[in-house]
Amino acid sequence: MESDHLTRISAPEGVSPGTGYSHVVWGTGRFIAVSGQCAFDENGEIVGPGDAAAQARQVFENLRRCLAAAGAGFDDVVKLTYFVTDVADLPAVRAARDAVIPADRLPASSAVQVAALFRPELLLEIEAFAVVPAGLAP
Fold it and tell me: Which DSSP string corresponds to 38-102?
């Protein structure tokens, strides 16, 4: 799938198609890295203790705000990395992602189960990389 500045390939020749992600994404423009976001609200309080779906929605809201601060949006995301304390929570994470990223704009992604995050109440953390067209100011 191509956009103005990004190209997405869900199944390179000889590679099994990805389920819910693109294998390859490249683009031209300004690179943006967003640090791993957790389920904190604007006051630093954890949203949804014990609730992966609520935490995932808050994480994607935090990602949206961070991307916007750099002049980007979810259409510009080329890579997401998911860190989850339980891979059983991935369907909730994907549902939150699907609510903000259209199926024809899926970024490359990796999912890693970790033993713990820096606070025991946190169930997931997501980092993002994006590319916006050159000359686009934040």
Answer: -SB-TTSPBSSTT-HHHHHHHHHHHHHHHHHHTT--GGGEEEEEEEES-GGGHHHHHHHHHTTS-
Task: Answer for the pair 109, 21: CB distance below 8 angstroms, yes or no.
Answer: yes
| Structure tokens belonging to residue 130 | 């994006």
121 and 48 in contact (C-beta within 8 Å)? no
| pTM for the predicted model, two decimal places | 0.92
Distance CA 6, CA 52 (A): 30
Mind listing the pLDDT tens digit for each residue in 84-131?
A: 999 999 999 999 999 999 999 999 999 999 999 999 999 999 999 999
- CB of 132 within 8 A of CB of 74? no
Q: Given its phi and psi angles, is residue 125 left (phi above 0), alpha (psi -120 to 50 degrees) or beta? A: beta
Reading the block at residue 48, the tokens are: 């949804």
Q: Euclidean distance between the first and final Cα of the chain, in Å?
A: 25
The C-alpha atoms of residue 56 and residue 97 are separated, in whole angstroms, by 8
